[in-house]
Specification:
heterodimer; A: mainly alpha; B: 1 helix; about 90% helix
């Protein structure tokens, strides 16, 4: 595992550089929007990566609910936190793209509103994990994660079933895309997926270490209490 | 190239680098706690 990390880091750096080159140089300029359309190569892969991370959070939460596996709980926290980072990228790059194309930064369109709700759900999940002192926190968080994940398909399919300001899907939605654009999109998604795996891995290790230290400190405090209690 | 395009790409990396900084700070704090535990 330790050896795989630097290898994946190098692969990720190469893919991110290649993805940037594909997005800015190789992919053709879109006729209507011009160069600003190239935001697509960061906006869409970030959204897909966030969805995958929230899915990982869902699966880890279900495993925790079924088996009370502490490692699954740690993975759920890691995936949710990194997912929120990617979802933040989506919510920031979206309005920067919308301003020159729609003439507005934001509109309360179904896709946009549901994405904001998704971000708020996972931010509240992280707040719960951070500030709750109850021993039931992992359990409550896992239940929240299961219900929160229901918003992911709503966000994804909102542009399929409703007429929204947001463009229709270019893949699988009947639209067509230049093969060079599709190539740049998929390379960037692969690059962001590798990057997310690296960051999630680091966050997971951090969570495991944090718990081990907390347990050691609690045990130490208990032993110190026992010793001073015995002396009395 | 477009200013909006550069802003979006820059914002993406600022967000990611900020989060990596947060993770690095947490790791440093944890390492300090481990050292303190070893000293006891």
């Amino acid at each position: 595992m330790k050896r795989a990390f630097p290898v994946l880091a190098i692969v990720t750096a190469v893919l991110l550089s290649w993805g940037l080159y594909q997005a800015l140089v190789v992919a053709p300029t879109e006729q209507t929007m011009g160069d600003v359309q190239r935001i697509f190569y960061y906006h869409v892969p970030s959204a897909w990566t966030a969805f995958v991370l929230f899915f990982v959070n869902l699966i880890a939460s279900i495993i925790y609910l079924a088996s009370r596996n502490a490692k699954a709980d740690a993975l759920a926290v890691a995936a949710a936190e990194v997912g929120v980072v990617f979802c933040t990228v989506v919510l920031v790059t979206g309005p920067i793209w919308a301003r020159p194309v729609w003439g507005i930064w934001w509109t309360w369109d179904l896709r946009l509103t549901l994405t904001l709700v998704l971000w708020l759900i996972y931010v509240s999940y992280l707040m719960l994990r951070r500030f709750s002192t109850s021993g039931q926190t992992p359990l409550i968080a896992a239940v929240l994660a299961v219900f929160g994940a229901l918003d992911v398909p709503l966000v994804y399919f909102s542009i399929w079933f409703f007429r929204t300001q947001h463009p229709q899907p270019v893949i699988g939605g009947g639209g067509s895309i230049d093969p060079r654009m599709l190539h740049a999109l998929l390379i960037n998604w692969l690059a962001f997926s590798c990057f997310a795996t690296l960051v999630c891995w680091s966050r997971y290790r951090l969570e495991i270490l944090r718990r081990e230290i907390d347990e050691t400190q609690a045990l130490e405090a208990l032993l110190e209490g026992g010793v001073s209690g015995g002396r009395r | 190239m477009n200013a909006y395009l550069y802003s979006a790409y820059a914002a993406t990396w600022i967000i990611h680098i900020f989060y990596l900084g947060v993770l690095a700070r947490r790791y440093a704090r944890l390492r300090k706690e481990i050292e303190e535990l070893k000293r006891k």
